[in-house]
Structure formats: C-alpha cells, structure tokens
Amino acid sequence: MTDTISFQRCNDCKQPQYPLRELCGQCLSPDIRAVTEEASGALLSWTRLHVTMEPYFQERLPSLVGEVLLDNGLMIMVHLDMGLSEETPQAGMRLSLTERPALDDRLAYFAVPEPKGN
Ligand SMILES: [Zn+2]
Hints:
mainly beta; CATH 2.40.50; 5-stranded mixed barrel; 1 helix; binds zinc ion
C-alpha cells in the first residue's frame, strides 16, 4: 500500500501532529513542517452516520466513521471505506489511511482495511 496522508512533524523532537498547529504539542518548538507519509493503524471505535450536512457524504449514506490510533502515535477521525466487502468494522482491525477530495474538494482522511495476512 503506497497511499499517504498529510500532517505535521516537529523538526526538533520528531513528534507527529494532527490537527495542524503553529507550535509542537510535545516540546512547543515553532520548527514544525508539513509531511506526507504512509500511515496505518488500528481501529479504536466506529459508528454509522445516517445524516450529514456534507453533500459528498449525503450521496453516500449511510457512511461509516471511525477513530484510528496510527502506528506513529496520532489518533485521527477517518471515513471508513469497507469497499465491496460485507465485513463489519471491528475494533482493533488494521487500516491503511489515504486522502481523497471529498469536502468541497478539500481532502478528507479515508481508511481501508489492510489486506489479510499483513
Ligand atoms: Zn517537538
């Protein structure tokens, strides 16, 4: 999987950060930069949305959202894309993250299940 997501990383202590900040949340350094990296992690919890104000998702209801603890330590809310699978999301399942245009052409985080056997 070569999908990537954008976030920030501190140049001093290397701590990844999201949401975006002007100072590092770990060491308060202003020396932070935008990075684009591969990201994967474990699903912590999820729910099914039946109502949304976002036109992109109104066309795709019900949609799944979840909270993922990434291997780099970040915790991020994502849209779950289970693809054509009938599989129900399970806490602890491994997910790979990617960004796609969704919110008025702004990028949103999506997570797809990692292939079994990884
Ligand atoms: Zn730092």
